[in-house]
Structures are given as structure tokens and as C-alpha cells.
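Lab notebook page, bench 4
Experiment: in silico fold of construct C2
Operator: M.H.
Input chain length: 414 residues
Purpose: comparison with the prior construct
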Amino acid sequence: MFETLFKRPTVLARYREGPLSDARERFLEQCAAGGYSRSMLQKIAWVLLALADRIDIAHDKVTARDIELAVDGRTRFKCRSKCVRESESSHQLFVHVATEWVRSLGCLEPLPEVNRPFAAQIATFARHLRDERGLSPVTISTRCERLAWFFESLHPPRHSLRTISIADVDAFVEEKGNRGWRRSSLSSLASSLRSFFRFAEGQDWCSRGIAAVIESPRLYAQEGLPKGPSWEVVQRLLASTRGDRPADIRDHPILMLMAVYGLRRGEVARLTLDDLDWIGERIVVSRPKQRRTQCYPLLPALGEAIIRYLREVRPRCAHRALFLVLSAPLRPLSASSITQIARARLSALGVTSSPRAAHCLRHACAGHLLASGFSLKQIGDHLGHRSANSTLSYTKIDLAGLREVAELDLGGLL
């Protein structure tokens, strides 16, 4: 690996004869497989050589403090004509590279686990939601996260669930409301707390009756209005990603999947190379809420966009995820990253109205289908709704249909 990065004999000899050369070279090979550029690999090699004699990897474990001391105590090290400057960015680079190197060697001492209050009870509740109620991993994670927030907010800290009262729950929900949480979010929060305390009562962990008196804001059926950009904005959005930059080539099929197919951001992030049936011209989407897969026809425009991404941008690697990040280390694109892509692209078009997250493109897809004359059943099937009630909310944005209802002559009925 050193021979690939360095050509001058004196420089090559310095890296090959330095301490722990085999361990440093193996790490560089791992980084190269992760998609790092040649210039970045040279920088990593330079950092490792500067720190190799300061980190004692002979012991079983190296702590984060050991790495900090090695970085802080290093002498200035020159690479060609450049000298390391004592700046925050260079310090972070040294610490990051050294930490990943030590971790790859299996010598990094893990950070002590944070002793979160009632962690064992939350874990038991999570298993109940997964094994007995069959809820999705996202739902379980959300509920457990809210429970952790609640327990950490208790002052003074409690050591038993029996010391928690309904006043503590009400104060927590009220505090979130004062911070600007919407009624729908507060209702979901109260539901998570109610679900846990109902389970806790069955386990005899807490006083009985708490779950029954947890109140949440009143919500009205179909009160929400699904908000999404107009189809004209969606067309502009897709047109803005028809460039030749790697980000444009990758983002174009991502945005098409959300705007044309109505996929959720998590469904896009979970797509793999195996989900593309090129012979059958189909794409298979995993629907976690329905606990099944759904097949869609692979539209020519989408197929061409994906093929261009695979040929020109996506590197050959062991990852099976369809969409990867553009910078090393190579890894699958996360759902939150897809939200950031949609938000940044909409902002670049001057769309400032809320919401601008990835889910608004799903709403735009539903609105476009409704305006095109598709039935609610067809729209619900396309979006993968479990219940017809989930699709009913889109009737409130069918302005043409609402006008027809408003223009009906009801004189004969009076």
C-alpha cells in the first residue's frame, strides 16, 4: 500500500521503516476499500506515522484518554513542505484517525455505558412491543426514546417506578407543550407513556391507575391537512437534479421514488441492489408498516436514472444498499440524510413554506394522483396505506371536487 501512495524512495523508506508499519499498512488498505481518495490516504498515513510511537497498542486496551494524550503530546511533524498547525481541525483529524486505527486493531476501550434510569424496564417493554404486539422497529425506538426523556426529566431522580405519580407525567407533557410541541405530537407522547404504564401495572412495577388518568390533547378526526408542494414545484425539483454532478445523478432517482412512487424516506433508504428486477422491469419495496413487500413497475425514466447512478457514481463495494453516501467511508444513505437532501433541494428552489421534509413529496404524489382522477382506493394502494382512513385526508385538498360539491343545487331538498 505504501508503494501506491508514495513514489520517492526516501519518503517510502520513512513510512515502511517506521514503527508498527504492518498495522499501519493494513489500516490504509481498509480505508482504501472504504472509498477514500489517494490524497486522503496519504494524509491518514502521515497521521499514523506521527502517532505510532506514542500509542501503546501492546496492551489489550487503549482508552480515549490515551489517544488524546498522544495527540496533545506529539511533536510537529512535517509532510513534504507542510507542517501540522496546532488548530482545532488538525486536532480532530489526529484524534479521529487514531481512534479508528486503534478500533480496527481491536484495542479500543469502549466508553463506559451511561446508566440511564429504568433502562432495564424500558428494555423489557421494548421486547414486549416487538415479540407480543409486533410493532415496527421505528415505533418501538420512538416510544423507548420518549420514555427515556421522561425518566431523565424527573427531579429529584427516582429509584422506583412506584414513586412516580400522575403529576410527574402531567408536568412532563405540559413542559413539552410549552416548548412548542403540536397537539398531535403531545397526543402521541401521552400515548407512549400510557402504553408503558399500562404494561408496568401488569408487571406490578408501579402503582395502579396511572395509565387510566394520563390525558392527552383532544384531536379531531381528519383535522390535519396533508401539506405538500404543488406538482409544478415537484417538476422543477426533478429538473434541478438533471445535471452531471455526482450529487445530482444520485439525488434524481431518490427524489423520483418519493415524488412519483410516493415512497417514505425509510423505504428509499432500505432499497438494495437485489430489489431491482431488471428482467421483469419491477422494483420491490419493503413496507414495514404492512410487514410485507410491494412490487412497482420500473418506469423507464426511473430505470435510466438508476442505471446512470450505478454506472457513473456508485462505486463497486461490498454494500448491497442501493444508495450510498458520496464521501468516504462508504456507507448506506440514512433516512435522515434523505430528509436533508429533500430539504436542501426545495430550499434551493426558493420553497420556504413548511414542511420541506422528504414526506411532503409523498403528499405531493397523493395530491397529484387525486387531481388526475384516481380513486381513493387506487391512491391508498399506491401509497401502501393499511387503512382507507389514511387516504381520506387527501379529499380535503381536492379543490375541484370540493367546488363541485359546493355548486350542487340543494333547493329541491328544502
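Observations: The longest helix spans residues 183-202. Residues 36 and 377 are 48 Å apart (CA to CA).
Next step: discuss at group meeting.
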